[in-house]
Amino acid sequence: MAERELYPSEKQDRFIVRLPDGMRDRIKSAAEANNRSMNAEIVATLEEKYPAPEDDLDSATMTEWMDYVDNATSSHDRIDRIEQINDRLSKSPKYGFLQIKLVDMKDGNSAAFFTTKDKWTDLSAKFLADESDDQK
Questions:
Q1: Contact (CB, 8 A) for 69 and 112
Q2: Are 33 and 25 within 8 A, CB to CB?
Q3: Whole-number Å distance between alpha carbons of 36 and 45
């Protein structure tokens, strides 16, 4: 008899957990409020508490994040996007010292820069230079 193909969900890790009284109902309510399954709600909550480690912050990632900020549809959206990236950076054991700052320029526009939390240094140029050196 031929073995059947497994569904992607059947290939994922499973973990049985015992919930205290009332928690299942609270998870169900939160899942309904967020328009997702209880499983998706639990996974989202765990992802927030235990984010995947970031192995490397290369110039491609930095460029992608800056494009994400630059493509915001409003100044409020731009600030929200910067806050999202800074929140992600703050949770990184390796890059927690970095953040993006929005700087008002003399021409009236604003620009976003990668900086250290304690210095106003544009680090994107340093990372791009380091990557260029690595490719030589």
A1: yes
A2: no
A3: 12
Share of the chain above pLDDT 90, in %: 17
CB atoms inside a 10 Å sphere around CB 99:
18
Whole-number Å distance between alpha carbons of 5 and 41: 27
Contact partners, residue 68, CB within 8 Å, separation at least 6: 81, 85
Pick the closest to residue 127 from 82, 61, 81 (CA basis): 61
Q: Residue 19: count other Cβ atoms within 10 Å of its Cβ.
A: 11
Residue 92 predicted with pLDDT over 50: yes
Q: Euclidean distance between the first and final Cα of the chain, in Å?
A: 56
Q: How far is CA 67 from the centre of its chain?
A: 15
The confidence score (pLDDT) of residue 120 equals 46
Q: What is the pLDDT of residues 1-57, one digit of tens each?
A: 677 887 777 777 888 999 999 999 999 999 999 999 999 899 889 988 887 765 567
pLDDT of residue 20: 95
